[in-house]
Backbone:
């Protein structure tokens, strides 16, 4: 990677820089004419004589001449500003492109780091480097060459003018330059060093913050907040000191520069005045020189600012880039090449040695042969070098001596396209990606896009532009929105068919029950699978039938019945009889909708709901006002939080006095209505509801539905024949609420649902829906065990010739053993290398080696 | 059915007799009201109890070792000791017909006592009186034997 910013700029944007420079020079005569023309208009056209004048072969009288000059002026204004606009956009675009190129390059370099290198870097430091730290570079690149060239040119021209007037004065004009040229870089060097320190310090800060977030449980569990606060505060102080130092120097440089610039006129007046008095220089020439010198100041100032900025940006660039150039970085072809070599033959490790310095366990001269199509076990406790040996076998780690071969291929020479497709690897620490379970299982099949993007007319031009930009910045031309899943491996012709295989693997791994439960909890898009939706609706009807005919069940649930009040649901649900379309909203939030408000007002429900809200607030204040703020009672049972209590007290007081202020009226009324909406009658037995109101709500339901209409964009109405997209499959099946006043109603009805799902053959489709379950950030919604199994499933899904599994289902328990057998059965006929800590496990394999302290101590 | 009827029922319980109105209302509010169908068990003999039951409506059979030993009706409080200490249920309670029951869980009751120490004092007072009565009864029984 280019070590200096200018080399990077020149290498990647020389052509554009020249264009910018040319256009900048081109704009110069235009600007000059623009400055000159007003003078001509006043002197020549307005105050001039000798009309008519001849211009371009036309005779013009004074007014016409004035008009001509003014129109020319207008034209020049347009041209000059047009050039400026074009230049700015051009520079901006160039900067952004270069920034994209730089960032992408840096990211790609991260992908090219060897594994041991990651023990030395932290994401807390790398992330700000690629994102924030290089930001300024982009803005600078457009100016990098044009600005010094242009301003330098101006300076030379002005100086030339002065020298022409009088060489002595010219010397006087530049007399301070040598001093400035000597002192300023000296001062600036110190600023550069400080900038480096600052960048490093900020990185440490960001690393510390990242570490605090990662270890937050430890911080709380050990009362270490104070220590970490002090640590960060100390870093912030260092940051302050460095910055303050930088300010001091930066402005001192400015001061010095200004001072020097104004020192020169002193010489002008003195020497020029002396010469003028002596008659060796005309007064007019002196004045012209002084005017010219004034014009010198502007470019000089610009150049100085540019110099300071260059120094600053250069430091930023260097301090970033030096972190992305480790000597042992993989060559670029390793990750970009798309050529796959089919790996066949025995996996042979010969005298493989790995010494990673301070990082990890060392391995000495390990040799073994795992025969093709057979199973092999590497036994070793933690720290025996087992993981390193397996990583070398997967081509993830390069042996420092010795070699690893599959057939005739040396793994160290192969590209990622071969290693990542022909070898499946499950390591000791696994990673589940944010996304669905399906995404994660199919992750190992997603190497390159499998098809060309299809785009319509409009999309075509957008696509072309997208490609051009990618080319201009050396980015890959892979579209994300096409299918990336390789189907050939699993011998299927459509992505959907992979689901069957995925479910098979899930079964093998013993995750079926988990997946079924996740499936019931998952929210599916009904447009994706119309058949499943229909089957769920059928099951819903069957369940309703069952519930209605079985007296035991009837008492457990209250189904959504448009003609009945549901005491286990909130008032909002009872009135609107719907769920919000946006799953992030609560049903109370529909109050913000104008049509809903109007409906409540017109039907007079608003007043009644406010009254209920008022009563609830009253009871809550009465019950909870003595309860201390930190009591769980308030959190668990109250409608109102501790902070809100005084607010509601105020509202009630003002209502009593009949003077709720106009301004807050609407908001306060809404709060009371929201309170009423949250009431679930069978849970909160507050005595604020009566049968009449229940009937009223049921009656208004229909009206509400007619007023708002089914095609609105806020809510979906409950309807026995409609699938509700924002509810889980389970809630869609049940289509009601387990009664809150019946013990264990939820569990008992779950049991019924489970047997019904079984009866109707819905288990498999529900599991399939479970594949759509979103696992949360990095799999946070799965258990550690589930995450590991998903990663094992990913390896099975890949169906690679060689599969390497480390420390997963590697125990001696019956459960592990059963799954292990299933996995080996699934991989039958392929080479398997398995890592386990237990010697007892090795017996299940065709061969083994036992590692102790990085050496093979026995084999068989 | 509102909170008032529940408060009235709670008031009849001797353990709660000294507790003031608002606290009782709070206790009623945080307690669960459950409906039991004919033949359903409120609790099973031998299980560890964690709540007291107050029958608001209907009846329940008290069954010890499979034998129906008593029938309790409205306002009866059952298993109140369970809300103060962990003890296995000494009998099975089975609903006769549809029965409404207010369930006061140990957890909630203890939370309230923690929040309002004066409540604890009231409960202690009642327990002390009971102990005193039992001691006297025991002494009487001994002197008669």
Residues:
């Amino acid at each position: 990677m280019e070590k200096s910013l200018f080399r990077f700029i020149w290498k990647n944007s020389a052509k554009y820089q020249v264009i910018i420079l040319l256009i900048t020079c081109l704009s110069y005569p235009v600007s000059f004419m623009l400055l000159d023309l007003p003078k001509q208009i006043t002197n020549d056209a307005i105050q001039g004589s000798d009309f008519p004048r001849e211009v371009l072969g036309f005779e013009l009288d004074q007014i016409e001449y004035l008009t001509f000059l003014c129109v020319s002026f207008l034209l020049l204004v347009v041209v000059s500003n047009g050039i400026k606009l074009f230049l700015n956009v051009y520079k901006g675009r160039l900067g952004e492109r270069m920034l994209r190129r730089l960032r992408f390059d840096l990211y790609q370099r991260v992908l090219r780091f060897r594994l041991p290198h990651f023990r030395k870097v932290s994401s807390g430091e790398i992330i700000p480097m690629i994102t924030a730290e290089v930001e300024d570079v982009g803005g600078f690149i457009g100016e990098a060459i044009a600005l010094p060239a242009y301003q330098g040119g101006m300076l030379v021209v002005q100086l030339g003018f002065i020298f022409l007037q009088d060489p002595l004065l010219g010397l006087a004009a530049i007399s301070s330059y040598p001093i400035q040229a000597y002192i300023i870089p000296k001062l600036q060097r110190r600023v550069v060093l400080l900038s480096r320190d600052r960048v490093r310090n900020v990185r440490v800060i960001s690393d510390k913050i990242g570490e605090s977030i990662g270890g937050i449980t430890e911080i709380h569990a050990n009362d270490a907040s104070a220590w970490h606060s002090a640590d960060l505060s100390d870093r912030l102080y260092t940051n302050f000191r460095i910055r303050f130092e930088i300010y001091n120097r930066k402005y001192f440089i400015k001061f010095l520069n200004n001072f020097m610039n104004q020192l020169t006129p002193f010489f002008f007046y003195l020497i020029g005045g002396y010469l003028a008095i002596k008659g060796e220089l005309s007064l007019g020439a002196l004045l012209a020189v002084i005017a010219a010198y004034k014009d010198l100041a502007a470019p000089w100032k610009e150049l100085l600012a540019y110099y300071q900025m260059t120094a600053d940006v250069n430091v930023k660039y260097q301090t970033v880039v030096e972190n992305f150039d480790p000597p042992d970085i993989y060559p670029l072809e390793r990750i970009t090449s798309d050529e796959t070599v089919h790996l066949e033959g025995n996996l042979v490790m010969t005298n493989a040695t790995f010494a990673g310095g301070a990082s990890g366990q060392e391995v000495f001269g390990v040799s073994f042969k795992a025969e093709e199509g057979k199973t092999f076990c590497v036994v070793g406790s933690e720290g025996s070098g087992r993981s390193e040996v397996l990583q070398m076998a997967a081509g993830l780690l390069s042996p420092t001596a010795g070699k690893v071969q599959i057939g005739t291929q040396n793994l160290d020479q192969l590209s990622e396209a071969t290693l990542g497709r022909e070898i499946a690897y499950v390591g000791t620490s696994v990673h589940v990606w944010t996304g669905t379970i399906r995404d994660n299982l199919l992750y190992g099949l997603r190497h390159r896009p499998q098809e060309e993007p299809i785009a319509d007319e409009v999309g075509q031009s957008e696509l072309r532009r997208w490609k051009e930009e990618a080319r201009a910045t050396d980015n890959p031309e892979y579209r994300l929105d096409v299918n990336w899943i390789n189907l050939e491996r699993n011998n299927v012709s459509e992505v959907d068919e992979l689901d069957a295989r995925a479910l098979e693997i899930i079964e093998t791994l013993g995750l079926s029950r988990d997946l079924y439960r996740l499936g019931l909890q998952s929210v599916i898009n009904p447009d994706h699978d119309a058949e499943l939706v229909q089957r769920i609706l059928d099951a819903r009807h069957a369940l309703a039938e069952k519930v209605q005919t079985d007296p035991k069940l009837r008492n457990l649930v209250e189904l959504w019945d448009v003609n009945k009040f549901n005491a286990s649901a909130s008032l909002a649900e009872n009135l609107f009889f719907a769920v919000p379309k946006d799953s992030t909203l609560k049903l109370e939030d529909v109050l913000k909708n104008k049509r809903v408000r109007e409906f409540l007002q017109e039907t007079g429900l608003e007043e009644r709901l406010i009254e209920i809200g008022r009563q609830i607030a009253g009871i809550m204040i009465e019950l909870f006002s003595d309860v201390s703020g930190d009591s769980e009672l308030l959190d668990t049972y109250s409608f109102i939080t501790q902070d809100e209590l005084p607010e509601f007290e105020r509202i009630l007081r003002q209502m009593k006095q009949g003077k709720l202020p106009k301004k807050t009226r609407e908001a306060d009324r809404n709060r009371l209505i929201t309170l009423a909406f949250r009431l679930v009658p069978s849970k909160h037995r507050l005595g604020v509801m009566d049968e009449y109101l229940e009937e009223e709500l049921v009656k208004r339901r229909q009206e509400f539905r007619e007023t708002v209409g089914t095609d609105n964009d806020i809510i979906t109405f409950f309807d026995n024949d409609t699938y509700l997209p924002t509810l889980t499959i389970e809630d869609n099946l049940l289509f009601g609420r387990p009664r809150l006043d019946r013990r264990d109603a939820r569990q008992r009805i779950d049991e019924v649902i489970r047997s019904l799902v079984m009866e109707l053959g819905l288990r498999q489709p529900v599991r399939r829906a479970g594949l759509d379950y979103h696992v949360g950030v990095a799999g946070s919604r799965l258990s550690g065990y589930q995450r590991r199994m998903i990663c094992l499933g990913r390896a099975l899904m890949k169906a690679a010739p060689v599969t390497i599994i480390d420390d997963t289902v590697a125990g001696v328990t019956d459960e592990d053993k059963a799954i292990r057998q299933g996995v080996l059965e699934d991989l039958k006929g392929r080479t398997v290398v398995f890592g386990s800590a237990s010697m007892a496990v090795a017996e299940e394999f065709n061969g083994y080696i036992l590692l102790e302290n990085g050496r093979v101590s026995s084999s068989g | 059915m509102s909170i008032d009827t529940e408060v009235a029922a709670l008031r009849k319980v001797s353990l709660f007799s000294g507790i003031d109105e608002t606290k009782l209302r709070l206790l009623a509010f945080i307690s669960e009201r459950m409906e039991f169908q004919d033949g359903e068990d409120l609790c099973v003999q031998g299980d560890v109890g964690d709540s007291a039951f107050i029958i608001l409506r209907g009846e329940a059979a008290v069954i010890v070792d499979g034998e129906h030993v008593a029938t309790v009706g409205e306002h009866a409080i059952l298993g109140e000791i369970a809300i103060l200490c962990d003890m296995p249920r000494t009998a099975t309670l089975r609903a006769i017909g549809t029965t409404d029951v207010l369930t006061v869980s140990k957890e909630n009751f203890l939370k309230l006592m923690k929040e309002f120490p004066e409540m604890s004092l009231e409960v202690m007072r009642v327990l002390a009186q009971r102990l005193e009565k039992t001691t006297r009864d025991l002494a009487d029984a001994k002197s008669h034997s």
User: Anything to note?
Assistant: Chain A touches chain B at residues 552, 555, 619, 622-624, 626-628, 631-633, 636-637, 682, 684-687, 739, 741-743 (CB under 8 Å). The mean pLDDT of chain A is 87. The CA atoms of residues 176 and 260 of chain A lie 6 Å apart.
